[in-house]
Amino acid sequence: xxxxxxFKSLSDMEKLYRCPGKFKYNEHTVAAHSFKVTKIAQFLGTxxxxxxxxxxxxxLYEKALNHDYPEIFTGDIKTPVKYASSELNxxxxxxxxxxxxxxxLAEFPDEYQSIYLSRFKxxxxxxxEGNILSxxxxxxxxxxxxxxxxxxxxxxxxxxxxxxxxxxxxxxxxMTSVAFFLENVLPDMLAEKFIxxxxxxxxxxxxxxxxx
Amino acid sequence: xxxxxxFKSLSDMEKLYRCPGKFKYNEHTVAAHSFKVTKIAQFLGTxxxxxxxxxxxxxLYEKALNHDYPEIFTGDIKTPVKYASSELNxxxxxxxxxxxxxxxLAEFPDEYQSIYLSRFKxxxxxxxEGNILSxxxxxxxxxxxxxxxxxxxxxxxxxxxxxxxxxxxxxxxxMTSVAFFLENVLPDMLAEKFIxxxxxxxxxxxxxxxxx
Amino acid sequence: xxxxxxFKSLSDMEKLYRCPGKFKYNEHTVAAHSFKVTKIAQFLGTxxxxxxxxxxxxxLYEKALNHDYPEIFTGDIKTPVKYASSELNxxxxxxxxxxxxxxxLAEFPDEYQSIYLSRFKxxxxxxxEGNILSxxxxxxxxxxxxxxxxxxxxxxxxxxxxxxxxxxxxxxxxMTSVAFFLENVLPDMLAEKFIxxxxxxxxxxxxxxxxx
Amino acid sequence: xxxxxxFKSLSDMEKLYRCPGKFKYNEHTVAAHSFKVTKIAQFLGTxxxxxxxxxxxxxLYEKALNHDYPEIFTGDIKTPVKYASSELNxxxxxxxxxxxxxxxLAEFPDEYQSIYLSRFKxxxxxxxEGNILSxxxxxxxxxxxxxxxxxxxxxxxxxxxxxxxxxxxxxxxxMTSVAFFLENVLPDMLAEKFIxxxxxxxxxxxxxxxxx
Amino acid sequence: xxxxxxFKSLSDMEKLYRCPGKFKYNEHTVAAHSFKVTKIAQFLGTxxxxxxxxxxxxxLYEKALNHDYPEIFTGDIKTPVKYASSELNxxxxxxxxxxxxxxxLAEFPDEYQSIYLSRFKxxxxxxxEGNILSxxxxxxxxxxxxxxxxxxxxxxxxxxxxxxxxxxxxxxxxMTSVAFFLENVLPDMLAEKFIxxxxxxxxxxxxxxxxx
Amino acid sequence: xxxxxxFKSLSDMEKLYRCPGKFKYNEHTVAAHSFKVTKIAQFLGTxxxxxxxxxxxxxLYEKALNHDYPEIFTGDIKTPVKYASSELNxxxxxxxxxxxxxxxLAEFPDEYQSIYLSRFKxxxxxxxEGNILSxxxxxxxxxxxxxxxxxxxxxxxxxxxxxxxxxxxxxxxxMTSVAFFLENVLPDMLAEKFIxxxxxxxxxxxxxxxxx
Lengths: 212, 212, 212, 212, 212, 212
Known about the structure:
Low-confidence stretches of chain A: none
Number of domains of chain A: 1
Order of helices and strands of chain A: HHHHHHHHH
Number of strands of chain A: 0
Largest interface: A-C, 47 and 47 residues
Mean pLDDT of chain A: 88
Oligomer: homohexamer
Number of helices of chain A: 9
Largest sheet of chain A: none
Helix content of chain A: 55-70%
Structural class of chain A: mainly alpha
Distance between the termini of chain A: 74 Å
Radius of gyration of chain A: 21 Å
Strand content of chain A: under 5%
């Protein structure tokens, strides 16, 4: 019994890889993903607040920080869409939730159990904070898949992921922060270029000519 | 549709890691594990045959080669025993079997479907070949966990795995090949030593003295 | 100009390694460290609140999440204590702060600049939240160095780090959450054992005997 | 002396990399390669049998499983064609064979020595099983080199390997299973595309338009 | 005190990565970079000598071998040009030099201190050997950045590095060895091609046709 | 034809690993090893010169820098002593020398061929510089094997390597620089300790007590 097991489990999250075996160029751990999602949620919340919404920051941070914690019990599983079943996904969520429940009862002092049972629950509810989490989670996934596609990873799964992530974000397009993302961030991401290998010769010639 | 997807899936098995995040010193892929299990099963079968048993070699190789193939659909999941449920394991087996079924129907020509449906079924039945597979699978797991413990990996999960693997092997101790393993192989494995760091000084002194 | 550069910089934090070249067993990225520190700060804040302190959660999360963000400009540098100078450390902080300042002005829309200038400032001030951050940062460092020592990494730098981290934590021992850590968590961490390699033979014998 | 050394050598095969230093995107171990070759040989044998040939399965599996085992003594060496000599390759085969011989005599019980001496011999003879092994070995090499080329690895060695592997396969084009490969598998492999980075903008626009 | 610490520090250079987190395809350590620079400097010196210049070889090798040694104290830092300050770079050089000074006094026997203080000084002075070092250092950097661009790394920093390295080399274009590089080496480097993925189908068809 | 191929081959040396598959804690490339050997040779030469010997520095640096260059053609092969044959080693040296010869004729301009043919020859002759190379090569190997043993790598091959390296060094014990190494460096290396895990509790208690 003990918080030591909880603290130690945090470093397990550093060793859990997302979509194991799929990312070739940049691998992502569940710990790093959780960090990025929380940072993105922070920015989205800032935009919402600036436009008059009331953000429950404590709630938002708790949801974002903990949203993938139960993966320490099962790992990150992503099966090719073609063969996956929604049944499987539902079963997984149930199993993870049950294990997180057992874990809290086994490892946390009585006085903190109810707090942590609540923190480890699914956070993507229909509150503003739940919606921000849903969007932030998919923005990070969009960046992760874009990074692979941009570098030339030919696995079709990344195009599937890109499309699925963007579709989910678009379901929240009424939110000011999502509108901001679609207008100000997404175009810049898509404008990122390959360095044109074929242009190196010309750049080289110009530099040589200029140096004479 | 196509065998190309089947051949390509083999290289997915090179990227699936066993117990992801747990092995520190030597990581093991599902492809390499399948290879080792097949080689161990080959040896165990050789011992059984030498002592008068009839081994169905075609059957044995098929079982050993394919026994973890369905993991390409879900990955290798190993949850700390303390929080796992046998329910989860059962669900996983079901899901994997269903996906393997769908995969064969989608990718294999009609004339080979029944052959591969049978090859991707659970192979640990009560035949001699099924028993050899059960033992070979656990011998490799024993070696994998021993390798980590020997090198100083302090994760308690490896002691749990070691004990669980050995206990399973012992359930088959009536088999001649298991007796051979327990008498001739296991003691050599356990006799492997750390290089005594503290003895380096003495070894060094002796070499220096001898060179004068 | 753009938030895209800010979002993209988050994945740079996934590639910044702490104490590059030193950790042998588990490497830690600045992204993962930031995540763990935020989770630990969450727990410490929970303990403080339970014992009557008022925690400004929005403030605490902002401090913890962003405390190492400016390292994207310089990397994580840790020089052997023996040769380092406090002058160097001061210069680094200044340079990082100046670069973070430039970055915010260059990439953020006007309306969010003052918010982010404040978020990227040094957070370890003398407020309760600043103190919790100081402690959480060192608890994670303590775990990181303990993990290496426990697995047998002989680099003396980890003992130096362990001692320096613990000394800093002890400077805050008047805090309830630090007392909780010292009494309930630290002893469990230190009680973690190596798996006794030498005991494997005995465990094996017992299992074999029991199976007869 | 002992089978323990044989079992332990299997995990050495997990650490032997093919063409060390050449593969950038997916590295391949000798263990994983042996697994894939055996699986491919299994499929090719299935096609031959379906078309009336008699396959000696025990023999086929033995050949495929063990065909690179002697590399544990020398590693996998692949020298740029331009500077290599056939003399070198011949010498290597001799040395490997001699070492495998010594190994069997040193480590295997008398009663299994002749069986394993035979298993570790070069398997690519002129039997149907030898031919299947020759083809399966090159199909896996074709996939390995294709994987690198497809992802953009500019090393000319992979084009050399691709051409040499395909040329060898074509020498066996009279075999039904090779015809099957050339007609049904190779075209699907070649049809694999890069995800067109340039099309991401259009895909994105369509998704956004469709969501309105 | 002791040369053991100096010898041991050499293996620290094997673990210091250049531009940490930036290279995706081939990472480079400070040890390997130092080796390559010394080999390139050797060739440039050979060309100079062949054309009548007097090369102080002892001096040239000392400069090249040791030119990045002081990075063991701070690591290799490369900040995006946009946010960097020349002030930072100057501070770094000062700090490294001071630490190297302390290190020599602490670890070397008196009789070798002045020799090593001189060896660890900045070597890029205006002598022929200093100029060769400046060029060799940038040729290796040019190759490192070219390698990433050629393989498709889209990070703009590599184009910046390529241009900065080439510009520095061009400042020394009056040297015979630099002229040799520009005329005989650079064009071959730029002529390196991607393997045209789209041509694989044609190559394959030709091989198949030729085999009939 | 061209020096570009020579410069490019230097980065192949960054990807050639020594004793592939054996080092668990720190891997070593042929490039980094060549660097370390040259630095160690530099120190040994400095000691010899200080004690009145005449060192041909140009010669010494050439020998040390290039001593493993021909491994780009075959890789680094290290077979367990038990099964290796001196015949194999002799064959390897011959093959490497022949390939290096072909390479120089194919890639270097006529005017530099004889220089490089001589540079790529075996450098361990009976001159002072040849002896320094022999010793420096083995000192680095001693450090490499010590590093693994000290961290707990149980592979017996590292004890074999340690003993063989030390024995070779001792054959040169009449050299002043070797005497310096044996008296001043080796004892410090052997005095390196594990951090006593068991002492962490005591260190912790003392720090806590002292802070009260």
